[in-house]
Amino acid sequence: MTTGDVLQVxxxxxxxxDRQWIIELLRSGSRWxxxxxxxxxxxxxxxxxxxxxxxxxPILLACALAxxxxxxxxxxxxxxxxxxxxxxxxxxxxxGRDLGxxxxxxxxxxxxxxxxxxxxxxxRAVENARVRWATERGLSEQEDARQQxxxxxxxxQRLTQTIIDGxxxxxxxxxxxxxxxxxxxxxxxxxxxxxxxxxxxTDEAVYGPLVAQDVRRSDEQVLASGRLVVAEETTFERGxxxxxxxxxxxxxxxxxxxxxxCGVSTDVTSLKETQAALQARERELQTLADNTxxxxxxxxxxxxxxxxxxxxxxxxxxPPQDFIGRTARELGMPAxxxxxxxxxxxxxxxxxxxxxxxxxxxxxxGPAHFSGRFVPEFGSEDAIDHVLAVLHDDTEQKRAEQDIxxxxxxxxHYARLLARMAQASRLVHASLSADExxxxxxxxxxxxxxxxxxxxxxxxxxxxxxxxxxxxxxxDANPNEPPHGTVLTASLTGKAGEPLGHVQLTGxxxxxxxxxxxxVLMQLAAIAxxxxxxxxxxASLREADHRKDEFLATLAHELRNPLAPIRNGLExxxxxxxxxxxxxxxxxxxERQLAHMVRLVDDLLDVSRISRGKVDLRLMxxxxxxxxxxALESSRPAIEASRHRLVMQLPTEPVxxxxxxxxxxxxxxxxxxxxxxxxxxxxRIELSAQVEGPYAVICVTDNGTGISTDxxxxxxDLFAQVDHTLARAQGGLGIGLSLVKKLVELHxxxxxxxxxxxxxGSRFTVRLPLAARTTADDGxxxxxxxxxxxPSVAPCRVLVCDDNVDGAESLALMLGLLGHEVxxxxxxxxxxxxxxxxxxxxxxxxxxxxGMSGYEVARQMRSDPHLRGLLxxxxxxxxxxxxxxxxxxxxxxxxxxxxxxVTALESLLASRLARAAPPAAG
Length: 922
Ligand code: ADP
Prior knowledge:
The protein contains 25 helices and 31 strands. By secondary structure, the chain is of the alpha/beta class. The strands form 7 sheets. The protein has a 5-stranded parallel sheet, with helices on both faces. Strand 9 and strand 10 form a beta hairpin. Adenosine-5'-diphosphate binds at residues 674-675, 678, 702, 704-707, 715, 720-723, 727, 732-738, 762.
């Protein structure tokens, strides 16, 4: 402030006169200019002094006040720090010696006793008060500033501590001697020290001498470098290595000299472990990528290779590093491969899903086939950063597949070939003649080998030697086109190696024939050779079989001839009634044996006829009961002879079947006879019949010798006999069951034999189809048992013609006994001559006559108009239906097989002659 400035003075005093007096004193005693604000009360003065701050503090000059004394006024002015808001000068009454010091202590800057008032004193007091107030004030502000600074320091320290305590890292500071003077909570917790313990502690005490040595060395480097050093430090805590990443820097004083090392350490142990694990993973992945046969590659959005595994070198011959940062196109890869990859990469980026590819790469070693996937790799934000490609070389697999396919194709080819060869073989073996075999061979060989033309030529020698030629042409081949291309020939040879002929192919499918074709043709020729051999054997077998049948037929016929006079003789003996006692028994025995023999001969003939297909059934609607009755009729004597008990279970209702009564009766009778034969005396035989579904089922069961398991399947074979000695003892040829089976089958039925073994009895079950309508209707006949008694017939003239003299004579004798007039002749011409002059009513004519056959004789008789009405009966050993047809064609009225049953003959004569006789004759 300069003297030119104005001093503001608040003049407080109740007396106006005093205030004016004082103003004058002050103006006159000072060089200063004053500006006065007057206050007539203490309150007003307080208001002025504590009012808003003006340009500079006013000076309060107080003299006597009515409302409060000076002490009170100061008391109310004084603030918390014991300071007044402005300098205060008090004019005290008297000299102020008592009150003055009190006022100064209370806070006034000066006082003046009234007694001492003068312009000069007053001016000095006011001016000095200003200076004193200002000085006091200044001192007080300095103290405030110091305290404030200290407070700020404390706050800063607290803040620092809070910050470093809050840090996860370990924070510390050590002086040059290595003593910690600043640590944070994390550090202390880590080393296990309290704040007090930490203060001044050394690394040696904390970590031990070895670690401390290292730490110390690093601290010294920091101090020497004078800058921030980041280093990794290892300590051992509780026996475990702990890794820290430490940032250390020197603390410098104002002169720039380091006085401490400060550090921030982060425990990176788990980070290091993670890193180590990560590195191990990476190494593993790298090893995997380097060693997998697949190519792994990673592409960025610009389709550049970011990574590629070592396998790429195998594919392209270029090392992986060549690829990094470049696209396939930039690498000059083939255009189609680039297109394939680029499409897949783009699609993987755009569609965010894996893409499958397959491509071929022309590698140095030939085309390599690859398949693979381009897979999008999602980054942290779910964005696709890269596309990873995994490419697999399928070349080997493809090659293996091709090999397998080729092998499979070959196998299929051979399987087809085999099947066709087998088929050809079947066809050859099914062929029974050389011509057929030649045809089959020619055709099959051409078809199997795909030739255009095949020719087989065979030369057969022996009886009926001849040459056979067979030709087979492809569908589009012209028979006249000359053979072209190579010729493939294979020879056919007989069992002893003799040549039989050859088969020749021309026009192979590919022009040439292969080695395999040759093998196939040779094989076919070999099959055909065997076939020819078989055909030859078959022909001779058939011939032998035919001869056997012929022989059997002839044998039967020849046997019948001698049987005829025996039967006639026995009949004569029977009818003459002359024999009694042992002679009669002998005659009866001879009759039984004769009947047996006749049956054997009949069976023999039947078997040979059936096997030659020469049996016709005389089918008619008949009841099962009639069949059984008829069968029982002929079997009963045998059953009774052995005293067997016959048990029957027959249906009460008629069971209708379509069949040949005689033949079916023969079937059942045969079974019954066997049962009687193969069951020891007094056995049990059961005959049952019933309807089962669409069948009439007949069972013949006995408790006899039974049949062993191994024999069971063969009992129906021709000439099969289980026990030859037994069968022979029982008088059999082993043809009965064979005949039975054939007859049953001719009727559309079947037969089954069962036995639990030897001594266990047997059961034969015959099934016959039921008639379509099971009612008696057209032509149904009941059984008509034959009987010795025949209708008596009026005597007539009978001519017997047979070259077997005994046969002719015995028949004549028997007819004579019956009262007929009989003549005998032994050949055809004699028969014709006798007929013409003697005029018999009937002629019994043998067929197998010497010179002129019976047929011829019959024809001539029939052609003679004078012989009309003559009964012409064939009496012959030949009894087939064929024979019967032939005799009917020759003009015979009847056909009887030898040995003729007298009753049958009598009935025939009776019925015929009764019809022929004139009605009025009697
Ligand atoms: P055979 O003329 O020998 O009787 P078959 O053809 O009738 O000829 O029978 C063949 C064989 O079957 C017989 O030899 C016999 O061993 C056996 N056989 C047939 N029927 C019976 C039966 N009821 N019990 C035991 N064995 C039987």
